[in-house]
Amino acid sequence: MYIGYTTYQAVRTLSSAEQRDADRRAGELAKSLSSLWHSVTAPRVVRRRTRWSRRPQPGLRGAGL
Q1: Which of 12, 19, 34, 46 has the fewest CB atoms within 10 Å, counting from its CB?
Q2: In which region does residue 10 sit, left (phi positive, over 0), alpha (psi from -120 to 50) or beta (all else)?
Q3: What is d(CA 33, CA 38) in angstroms, rounded to the nearest whole number?
């Protein structure tokens, strides 16, 4: 029973609305996988901030702050 339905789905052509929906879902999947890949492979920069390593912001000297 299930094999017959699978064969029907494989042979049947999609309507234009179904094709657009399938393309949209494929694009969303590609976007999420790309985002995941970039977050995993992105270099991680770890900086420790201490009160001695903080530098004054430019433009705030003499402003009374």
Answers
A1: 46
A2: alpha
A3: 9
